[in-house]
Every structure is written in structure tokens, then in C-alpha cells.
Give the backbone structure.
Amino acid sequence: MKKSILFSLRSPYREQLDVYGYTFGHGRKTLAIVGAMRGNEVQQMYVCSRLVREMKKTEAAGKIADDCEIMIIPCVNYYSMNIGKRFWAMDNTDINRMFPGYDQGETTQRIADGLFRNLQGYEYGIQFASFYQQGNFLPHVKLMDTGFTDSELMKDFGLRYGIIRRPRPYDTTTLNYNWQIWETKAFSVYANATDTIDEDSADEVFYAVLRFMKNRDIADTKVQPGFSTDLINESETHQVQSEKAGIFTSAVDIGKYAETGDILGRITDPFDGEIISEIRSPISGTVYFEYQNPLINENTVCFKIIKG
Amino acid sequence: MIETIASAALAVGEALNIRKKRIKNGTGRTRLSLVTGTHGDELEGQYLTYLVGSYLEKHIDMLDGIIDIYPALNPMGIDSITRGIPMFDLDMNRVFPGSKDGTMTEVICNSIVEDILGSDMCVDIHSSNIFLKEIPQIRISVPTAEALIPYAEMMNVDLIWVHESATVLESTLAHTLNSRGTKTLVVEMGVGMRITKEYCYQLFDGVLNLMKNLGMWKGDVNGIHKPLLSVNRNVGFVNSDAAGIFVPCVNFGDTVRKGEHIGDVVDPLSSQIVENVNAVSDGIIFTLREYPVVYGGSLLARILETSEGEEVL
């Protein structure tokens, strides 16, 4: 294992920010893995730290394939993590909206540039991502459909679902999108929680990445077979939105199957406690996202369901 | 007439309401929309829309048409000194055109677009953020430049900055409206969280002049000046390479020469100057950093190439 500083940034009042990469194996740049780019992505950093530990053992056992290099970056933005902010501490900009970066640009553009220079040239890229809405996901892998990466590759993770997303204009400055433009087959892996550690889903995505390494002949890791992955277009998933605002309680667990008309959750009046809305499933399918906050506004996506 | 054009119930005891004021007179059907408050830390538009609204009401007989004023597209942001929509990660100006069936923010954005569409002209007023001060300017993307520059020249700004289009900007309000047939100008001026009265008065004259040219204003207008156009001019960016406290030694609007000393980045702990900041090109400083704390990469100034004798301020 080689631990190296990929990018440094001086702060006026804090210790220098050093972004570390952990490299395993030698030769062709085969797989890069990026964890927390936002200050609340604790689960994402945690999963990466477990992968670093596992890769140390894998490398020591000589089980990384010849001519394969794996790099893991557990945390980019620990400045924000240490002060409880999600975005960049000074100006609240999002590093994951600054790619491919610019070395003469603003601070987060420079961070993105410094990172991206080290991430180019890898055959595969995995980012542990978090969603902009508060909620729990069934662990899954997502592909930004740029036409470059074969969606069938998502099956190598062995997660239940691989979701294909058509990029929107605001996606074009993310790492995942730019990775593909620079010809890395890039995937986003969603590990349920963000600012808390959920051991079960951490396990699930940890093993999914090991499975991907095994199936792609990158590292011979000991891992159980996964699911037969269903590939789904994001536009075909069904969003259920709140029709009222108030106190939200979920009545299902993610991963459960709901029949049409089943109650998924309830909204009660925050002052008198009366039930003002019962949220029912409009289709039969698997619940793969649930909103997680006791307070809910009108028109908020509270469940996402995969039909079938 | 004040009207709520979009509404969504919030979790506890209130609703998010987007409101507009319509001022209408005469038989003319020409409609101008003034839009501001997308970013909650940009306040220059609050005073400008007040100036326009109060003046028109006092001189209503001079109006022949419809003025729609949308002072706060992001009222919760303005109310809580939050740039974005509170508790929502994405910049509101990256969510347009929104969606009828989407999330709360998407539904709100969609309602805003639907309400503004049909205007003959829209002016979307922004300030700078809290870090930078900007001269009054209109920003236009290259594909819309030919259609919009004649109108931008009516607005009494100091600069028209024509910039390259970027895919990410396709989700702005201005792009959405321009692509759907409502000509929209984006104004940037001043500094975040503050009101620069002289800029608001300057733009007030510009709005009346625009109305005059659109045939909706029968009253007098003050003389306006022709703005500089960025086309075929170099715009130099001065970014900090060091971290520390930026102390400029030039003023906003000064003309500088390439290599001229324009400030220092200093370190209060070591008592050292950690960076001498010099102009990267000849021209006028039209952007200057207001917030002193800087990291490597922080924008300190922008310099617009000018000819001998040209002034913007």
C-alpha cells in the first residue's frame, strides 16, 4: 500500500488540507474509488475506510491481479466534516458541482481539478454518493447515461438494482459525468445513510465493491454471490409525493414489497395530531427510497417505488 | 394588484408563497416582468423593485402597459439570509424550468416560469455574492447576444458581459425564458447582503428607459450612458494563490496596468505578506473582493480591458 498526498490546500487559520489516496497493486490504472466529497458523507467515508483495510490484506495475500492498480480516496472534504457543514466551509459551494475543475479558478474548482487530475486514466471509477434529499435508499448502483459506459457492467456489483439516469444540465459538473467524458467507466454507489453509519447497508455496498473487483478480475476477494441485478431506467421508477404538509411517519421499510393501495406512510397535523393524509402506494412494487425527517412539506418525494 | 402565483404548504403552520404585484394602466398590452430574489443573499433587487413600483404608482398615468414585479422568488432564503432555498441542496437557479409533477421546488419553479411566460421582456436582477462587489452589468450568453444586446444597451448599466454558454446554465431562469420566447436580461450589480443605492438609482433609470423603448412609458426619462461591451475585450481574472487576509491598495473602478501592485494577502499570525497581488492585464477593475479572508483560488478582482480614456464609473 502506498499512502500519498494527492492535493493540498493552505487555509488561513487551519492545518493544511491534504487529500490522501491509498494505492494498492501496480501497473495499469484499473479502479479508483472516491468517498466523501461532502462534509456529512460519513457513511461514504466509513465504507472507504473498510475497503482500505480490506485491500491491505488482499494486497499482502498477493490477490490483486497483475498489472492492476487500485486507488481509494476515503475523504476529500474533511474541512467541512470537522465543522458540521455539508458543503465547502468558506463559501458553501459543492465540490461535486465543480468538475472537471480549473487550476486557475476558485477554491473548490481548484480542489476538483487537483482531485480529477489524479482520477483520470482509470478504467473504472466508483463514487460513494449521497442524495440531495434526506432519506434512506435501498443500496443500489447508478449510472449516468452518457453513452460511454455499458450499463450491463452494473450487474457485476450484485446489488438488487442498477439504475440508469439520464443526465440533467446540473449533472454535467459532477464527478461521475466528467469521469465518463474522460473515458472512465464510472458508477455511483448509494449506501443508504449519509451522516450516520448504517452497518447493514455499509456491509452491503462494501461487499458489492469487492464483488465488482472479483467479477472484473481486479482482485480475488472472498465474497458471496450477490443478487441478479435488475437494470432500471430512473424515469420508470415511481415517485410518491406528499399531498399535505405536517408530521411524517413511514409505515414501510425500504426493500419491502407494497401492493397497490397499501399504506406507505401517514401525515398528521403538527398542532392537533389528526391524520390529514394517508400515503398509499399507487402501484405494486419494491420501495427503494423513503423520506426520513419527521417534518414534511407539500409535494415532497416521500417514497420511490420500483414496479414489479 | 398583488397575487400569489405559487404556493406550497410547509410542514408546520405556514405556506411558502411566491407573490407578484401587477401595475397596469392604459390600453397597451406590452408586459415587462421584473424578477429578483432567487438567491436569498442578494438584496439589490429588493430596493430597485421598490423604487420602480412606488414611482409607477405615483405616475400611473404615464404607464401604458403591464409591469409585473416578482420581488422574492426565494422568500424563505431572503428571510433567513440563506443563498439557496433553506433545507434544499440545489441552487434554485439550477432547477428551472422545474416540473408540474416534481418536488416542491420543481413545482414552484414551474409555476414561476409559466407565470412569466408571455411577458414581452423580463429583467432578472441579481447581486453579487457576499465576497465580491460588481459594477452594474448585464450578462448574456453568446447564443442570445444578437437578440439581447440592443435591449441591454437601454438599461443604463456600465458593462454588457457576453459569456460562453455552458450546459449547466441551461437550468437557469433566464435560459428557460429566453429559449421559450420571452427575452430575458440578467442584471448583476453590487454586493451580497447589502443595498448599493446609487446602483439601484442607475438601474431605475435603465428600467424606465427600457419601458420607454418598449412603448409602455409616456413620461420623461433621464439620460442613460452606453455600456462597455465585453466582446473583443480581454477580461483578466485575479485569483489568490495564498491563504490569508486580502488587503487591496486600489479602489473599485481604478484603471491599472499589467503587473501593477493591487493588494496584498497578509498573515496576521506570522506578520508576513504571503502574496503580492498584481494586475494580470491592463484595464479597469470592475470586480473587487469585499470579504477579506481568502484561500488559494479565491477571486480577488476582475479587470476589463479598456481603451485610452474609456471609463465605466
Remarks:
- The first helix of chain B runs from residue 44 to 58.
- The mean pLDDT of chain B is 94.
- The interface with chain A takes residues 8-13, 16, 83, 88-90, 94-95, 101-104, 107, 129, 131, 167-171, 237, 239, 242-245, 267, 293-299 of chain B (CB under 8 Å).
